[in-house]
């Protein structure tokens, strides 16, 4: 559809152009997105630009964090988006997946830190996440995403992106088209993948219901549609067992990216159902946790963030501890073949939450 300029009762189309015709480089496009990541249609905290990946002898155009702590690889093309840019983005994300908080801190300090000033990515991210309604600040780099931006999406790339999303890979394609009106240049961003909802509004009887945020009104159904019945069944079963054991009072599905188990109105366990695994995150309330002993007790492997991508993909169910702002959080990554119905997990949760002596 065309872009129109309105004056009084008259409307005139604005001429669509190309970045090549306007002699706009990818570096300039990068400038615009770096300064205003909202162009991509969501809140993002850009932590790096032209980020070097030594193993690949290459650089990521922009590296960002979303409010859920996921690392976002952003690749920009001034021309049409086509293969192999998808493979390029996935390759970058695979390497970034192994980066530690210290590595992200080092990247961010060069972009967000000011000369002569101590910079903390933890503090900057916490402020960013909280400003966008995230109450319990998540760990960094628990997952990765890819955003590819260009003038037009080629059919083959669109097909690959849709297939990747069906397989659980979070990839997003955005077209940005330039328009020229005299001396003024306009940008029109448009998300192509994932496709926009065919129905933002739904008629219920004589009422019209806003379905733009379905997790608020139909949270459990939303999560089932997104991650599958098996993943959500496991999450609900564990939450119900916690409630029965007196470790929690209720479970809330009214969040977009996770399920909250609540006690006294506060979240005591964060559950992230996924297609192949269930992530559990909880704060270590008191005392010290022997990670090796906990792994033996639960029949898990200690998660090593230094592992390569192949080893990470092959790792079985695992446990690790992350520390941020002086607070320790225990993270369990449980594959769907792990016996979550056993007493070991429930007893361990009770110990971590300080409910058991």
Spans of at least 5 consecutive residues with low confidence: none
How far the N terminus sits from the C terminus, by CA atoms, comes to 65 Å
Nearest-integer average pLDDT? 83
Structural class: alpha+beta
Strand content: 25-35%
State the oligomer. Answer: single chain
Strand tally is 17
Q: Which overall shape is indicated by the principal axes computed on the Cα atoms?
A: elongated
- Specify Rg, calculated over alpha carbons: 23 Å
In helices, the fraction of residues equals 25-40%
In CATH, the topology of the largest domain is named: Trna Endonuclease, Chain: A, domain 1
CATH top level of the largest domain is Alpha Beta
Q: Write the element-wise H/E pattern from the N-terminal end onward.
A: EEHEEEHHHEHEEEEHHHEEEEHEHEEH
The number of domains is 2
Summed up, the helix count is 11
Named CATH architecture of the largest domain: 3-Layer(aba) Sandwich
Tell me about the largest β-sheet: 8 strands, mixed
């Amino acid at each position: 559809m065309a872009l129109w300029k309105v004056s009084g009762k008259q409307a005139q189309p604005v001429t669509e152009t190309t970045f090549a015709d306007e002699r706009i480089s990818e570096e300039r496009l990068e400038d615009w997105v770096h300064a205003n990541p909202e162009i991509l249609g969501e809140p993002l905290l850009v932590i790096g630009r032209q980020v070097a990946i030594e193993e690949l002898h290459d650089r990521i155009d922009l590296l960002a964090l979303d409010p859920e702590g996921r690392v976002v690889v952003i690749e920009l093309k001034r021309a049409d988006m086509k293969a192999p840019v998808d493979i390029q983005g996935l390759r970058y994300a695979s390497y970034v997946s192994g980066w530690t908080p210290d590595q992200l801190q080092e990247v961010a300090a060069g972009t967000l830190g000011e000369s002569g000033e101590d910079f903390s990515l933890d503090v900057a991210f916490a402020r960013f996440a909280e400003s966008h309604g995230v109450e319990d600040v998540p760990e960094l780099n628990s997952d990765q995403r890819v955003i590819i931006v260009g003038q037009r999406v080629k059919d083959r790339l669109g097909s690959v992106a849709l297939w990747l999303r069906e397989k659980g890979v979070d990839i997003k394609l955005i077209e940005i088209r330039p328009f020229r009106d005299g001396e003024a240049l306009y940008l029109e961003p448009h998300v192509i993948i994932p496709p926009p909802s065919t129905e933002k509004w739904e008629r219920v009887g004589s009422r019209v219901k806003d379905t733009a945020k379905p997790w608020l009104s139909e949270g459990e159904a939303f999560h089932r549609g997104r991650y599958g019945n098996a993943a959500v069944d496991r999450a609900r079963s564990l939450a119900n067992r916690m409630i029965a054991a007196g470790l929690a009072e209720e479970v809330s599905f009214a969040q977009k990216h996770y399920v909250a188990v609540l006690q006294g109105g506060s979240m005591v366990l964060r559950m992230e159902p996924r297609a192949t695994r269930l992530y559990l995150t909880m704060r270590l309330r008191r005392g010290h946790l022997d990670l090796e002993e906990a792994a033996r007790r639960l029949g898990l492997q200690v998660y090593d963030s230094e592992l390569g991508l192949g080893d990470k993909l092959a790792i079985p169910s695992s446990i690790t501890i992350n520390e941020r702002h002086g607070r320790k959080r225990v993270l369990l990554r449980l594959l769907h073949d792990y016996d979550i119905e056993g007493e070991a997990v429930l007893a361990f949760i009770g110990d971590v939450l300080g409910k058991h002596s």
